[in-house]
Amino acid sequence: MKTFAKYSIFLISLILFSQSKSSFACSYTEYGEDIRISMFRIFNENMSGFYPFKYNAHQYNACFTISSKDKQRNIQEWIQELNPSIRSNDVELILYKCDPTLFYNLYNNNKLQSFFKGNTFIEELTKEKNKDILQYLLISKGIEYLEEFHSDPWVEYVGKNYDFNSQLNRSILEHLEEIVGTDMNPFLQQRYAFQYLRMLFQNNDYYGCKEVYYTHFNPNKNETILNPWALHYCAIAEKESGDSIEANYHMALVFDRCDDKKLRMYMQFNRSQSMINQTLALAKTPQEKAAILTMTIVNNPGRTLSTVQEIASIDPGYYALDFLLLREINKLEDWILTPSLTLSKPTVLMDEEWRDGPEDYLRKNYEKDRAYLKQVILFGHKMLSQSGNSDYMKLALAHLYILDEQNSTALSILPNAEASLPTVLYKQNIIEQLILLSSKEKITFFNNREDAGKLFFLLDSLYQKDQVDGMTMYSLCQRYAKAMTYNNDNVRAALFLEMGNLYQYSEWNYDKKDMKFSINEDFNYYTLNYFDQIASADDMDDLITFIQNDGRNQFDSFLARQEFASIEQCTELKGSKLFREGRYKEALAVWESLDDSYWLDNGEFQYYLKHNIFRPMDLYSESESNLNMKRINKAYIMDLILDLEEKANSPGRRQDLYTLKLAHVWFNVSYYGNSWMLAHYYKSCSPDNEISGVGFSSLNSVVQCDSANYIYLNKARELYEKVVAESNDKELKVEALVMLQYTDYLIHYTKYRYDWDNEHPYAPKYTGNFWKEYEETDFYHMMYITCPRFEAYVDM
Amino acid sequence: MRTLTIIKFSLLFVLFSAFTLKSCKQTERSKRSVFLWKTNEGLKESDQKTLESLEITHTYIRFGDIEWNPVFQRSEPIEGADSWDFDAMSYYSTAVIFITNEVLQNLEFPDMKDMANKVAAFYNDRQDEFASRYGRIYGYEKLEYENYRDVDWDAVKLKSDSLKDDWSLRNNRLLIDCDWSESTKDKYFSLLKELKIILRKTEIQSTIRLWQYRDYKLAGIPPVKRGLLMCYSTGDPKDINTENAIVDYASIQEYITHSRYPMKLDIALPVYSWGTLFRNREFAGIISPLSINYLEENPALFEKKDSINFIIQTDTVLGNTYYRFGDVLHYQGVNAEELINIAKWVKKMVKPDKAAIISLFSYDPLYFNQIGHENIRKVFHIFN
Lengths: 796, 384
Known about the structure:
Chain A contains 41 helices and no strands. With about 800 residues, chain A is mostly helical. Among the domains of chain A are: about 215-295, no CATH class; about 730-795, no CATH class. Chain A starts with a helix and ends with a helix. Chain B has 2 domains: about 30-270 and about 335-380, TIM Barrel (Alpha-Beta Barrel); about 275-330, no CATH class. Chain B has helices at about 1-25, 45-55, 100-105, 110-140, 155-170, 185-200, 210-215, 215-220, 250-255, 290-295, 335-350, 365-370, 375-380; strands spanning about 30-35, 60-70, 75-80, 90-100, 175, 205-210, 225-230, 265-270, 275-280, 280-285, 300-305, 310, 315-320, 320-325, 330, 355-360. Chain B has an 8-stranded parallel β-barrel. In chain B, strands 10-9-15-12-11 form a 5-stranded antiparallel beta sheet. In chain B, strands 13-14 form a two-stranded antiparallel sheet. In chain B, strand 7 (about 225-230), helix 9 and strand 8 (about 265-270) form a beta-alpha-beta unit. In chain B, helix 4 (about 110-140) packs across helix 5 and helix 4 (about 110-140) packs across helix 6 (about 185-200). Classes of the chains: A mainly alpha (about 800), B alpha/beta (about 375).
């Protein structure tokens, strides 16, 4: 009794006193870019300078550009200066890939030619007539060395060579100051001037920087790539010196004329309305005005069509218009499709009745977005005719029509599937064809599924070569998953969701092999999660058939590329679903078909199904040596339940005892019990957390279809009440009463888990005198001594 | 008899001394402090006046963060406050360097010595910068003169240098802010030990988060003489059911459940507030700083649903976020009454010693006005 009491005090107090309100979630919540639906991802060479501004849930898509335009222009200028026969790769190697220390060492040891044998750029540079140019290159490599050294973020604080580099900095500045302004060819003149103003800028000499710019460059010209590069330093120097309007204007010029500095100029640009008006007043050409206006919206996440239209009217051929339209399309996808195809709630369903009401924000936003979509479509038509029916515009317009559910119009605009298109447009064309095949009218037909399967395979092969974005594949899979639900095909819906998940996370180099919840390598709950959440017991048979099917069509073959759970695992899950659906004998039959070894070899059943199912762990402690390891088997437990049910329903001796035992069993297979894993696979701090939303919000989870018993303990409580009502044995009655009290408490706190203001304090059902008639029972004594909360109830 | 008298008298004397000493000690009180957490703003004269009116003599200055750069696979220092943004500085200060747990996760145990060297170099550099700034402000910039020729500039420089040196000597404390985990505990503690060796004349301190206080046996005790208990950040802002992720009285009671923490602790209490944005009941971002007054004073944009939930009334772009009609902005902050209750609980359970620094996180006139200066005084008074 003492040992028993000692354990009981701890266990019962632990349970009854430590009902914390919540455990503070430490898991990651997907939102924003994790789930954004986007299928229109044309990003051609002309747009590469806008890479940092691709529509994205983060502040910027990237803090670098992928454009090589500026670099190529610089290379061509070198070639033009030296010799048109020089290969551009040779120039790129020396200018952009050669380590400055290596270059210096080779130069000092006269080994440039031998080391770079065959390099046409070095061959030209090392000629006597080009020695001045070679000298310039040495200076610029020195500057590169200086900057590389400073690229180590710690060197400023711990760098032993910091003083050395300060000296180097000074000597380069002095040399540049001396040489700039001396008589030399224009090519060198500008390049030295550029390096000098850059060094002055890095040394915070903004006035010097501006002075050098205006001496050697002209903001009205764009004859060399150095001009916008140099102007970018000058513009920031102007801003720092207080010439804000001039600075703003120059920033717009730089933004327009080169790719490498677009992001930096955008970050420095002042977008307040008064500044924009004053900046526009300085613009000399329509292109300059268009550039200024582009900078006001290029990273704006809201509706910007009116400004895009203004840009188009000022400069119909402005090169950024394609990109700005791309952003509007991506926004519309996000606003209309992301809620519909992900867990953002509620779904925006095209064919549901709208609930009218003062708080119907979602409907109102949806209607606004659809109205905006129509405006963008109209603009798209205008751009299509202005562009001379370009393929890009056709694809853009088709996509907009798909968003507007006008599939036949979209199809009529799309280029032919066999049309010869540039790669990036070709890919998008495939995507559009695939989207159209997912429509309700098309997806039921075998031929269409075959075509869709082929297109999926094609896109997947491009994805494997990093030519198609993982989030595009994810978006397509979400769309198809939804299409499958319209066909009441939960199996394929779940399979598409799983595929989407794989594409979604492979973007982050996520190895799905790591996503195993059990210690056993073979058991992979992860692959069953979707089925656990949405499939019925009968769906599991369909899944098993799907897995075992050898003669698949292209559509199913695509889905079959993912890892499946084993047939035994599917079977076992089927049993759990049957149990949840109340089909106990069928559940037993299914579980009986599995080997005993299955339960020990898979998952964590061996840890959670070994307890004494007849004793609630909150009332009775269980020493390690008594744990029931003999038959860790759901079929065994199910058999016990059915047997006990029969005994409890058969009038006779000790029927009340069997009823109480059965009640304890139903308690123990609930969320709160020691064998919750009988028909569930994981337990969270709150029952709500177990219902993990998958796919999209119209997809209802069935994982707690047994919540009446699993959460609300209906069956258990019914049986406890029966014991109280019918039993003559006071020991049994008081035990049943204690469990009624306890389960009442558990259900109350499950219901009012977030009652921060304590508006629903718990009032115990049985208090004070109610317990008097049981005072003489052993069970009462045990509870009174070991459970402070029970003692409190009694003393109330 | 005479002996007895002497004894009695001595006893009386001892008792009397003890009484007066105790009284003397009772006049000591905890140092009042604030955190200066912005990196683009320093202390202005008007701020200094506010702090002085509240008898706040100490500030925690964010020297910088040490973060992990996954692209270059290295730790990187990011400077925090810029001394040139300061027109005024408090007499007492403690430097703060925040190290992300990711840095510790990605470095190996033997790297801690090198890391300590870097952190120490970073600290020394910034300490010198702020000390110089102090000397400059109170040596040069506060100087009043009509004709510069009349000023003995050598003496001024000497004074400035002297002020700089005094500031350095007086404020030789470094608080390392790190939310270490069980898996990085040993590395973090090793880092602290190395720092203590390298910065012998500097008092190294460590932050202690609430979970580290509650579960100190699991979290470990950092090898420093003094820690700073951060009495906030109790919830998950992304959870729609979290009423207040910053702090609330009930949560504090769940964390500060004992008085057994085996180290002297300074205390930091929250006065900041923010808003969590939910769209269709899904988390969509955090807006900070945010005051309840701003929300209440713009009803055209923010419709009040209840005391802390506001509904966006029109599609609008603020900053870089597109707010949609119907988005719910869930204001989270701590009101004066709750702050006082929290302070009382902390005082009762943690029992900070008389030398403890009681600090408010973080200083912003917006937050201070929201709480109210009188209430701030009350909070500090609790720890007297």
